[in-house]
Amino acid sequence: MAILPVNVPYSLTDPPWRSSSGPQSSVGGPVVYSHTAFVGGGHGDSMILVGGVMPATEKSSSDDAITAYSYATSTGRWNSFTLPSGNYLNREGAASSVTSNGDAYIWGGKRASVNKTGLTNGGTRTRLPPNMYRVDTLNPVNSTIAPDTSPMPNLRYAHTQTLINNRTIVVLGGFEGHTGEAVSLADIWLYDIYDNQWSHVNAKLDKDSKPANRSSHSQLLMPDGKSILIYGGYDGYHVFNDVAVLDTQTWTWTIKNTNAAVQGRADVSAPGVFDSD
User: Which keywords are on file for this protein (predicted)?
Assistant: First the structure.
């Protein structure tokens, strides 16, 4: 585990990464990738990991006994806990959004390979349901699966989710779960966490039909609370290096001009750090 303090200025060519304090090496964190991670806990001071892929040598969890992990930043300790059965969170490439009261909403993803054959212990793989899953980070036993509603989007993986107004989750891009094709960024689904309802939006792309279809991009909500910025991504053939902004009031995309030829990246995190002035 490594930590980068962002509350003080630092050189971009030599960022002051440091190992986290606390006896984490003796407790041990999960060896996992393609998981979803989010902030939770009573004071928002824990990082919670759900799903993902573990090396083939690791003992895999079944669909009905999912172990999640939390990392307490105050003590540097890892802990594990079990989510309710039947949650189907043994998946990779899912995305998550966290509300102000500590509820995390997880959607999408694809079956995580749990052994060298990529099959579950019974030799078959249960189809993932397209339902939203709510994780109560304060009391995990209260976590629930949202009921079926109509319409519902086809599952995606390697997409992003952005929570706006502490109510609406905006799902962007990703790979289509059935075809594996990159999804258009004009094809947007919204989820209302209070009404448990999905709705669809056809956004307007910028000139030349950009930004292009993609997955594995990074996103963040801008300080105005209505604009979503994305960077990079991958469409199965190309890695992108462009920056685009979605206005969620007009549902219009705008490509931003950048002053540097940054190398394209995918599967990269982009936390927002904004000047309060």
Answer: Kelch repeat, Repeat
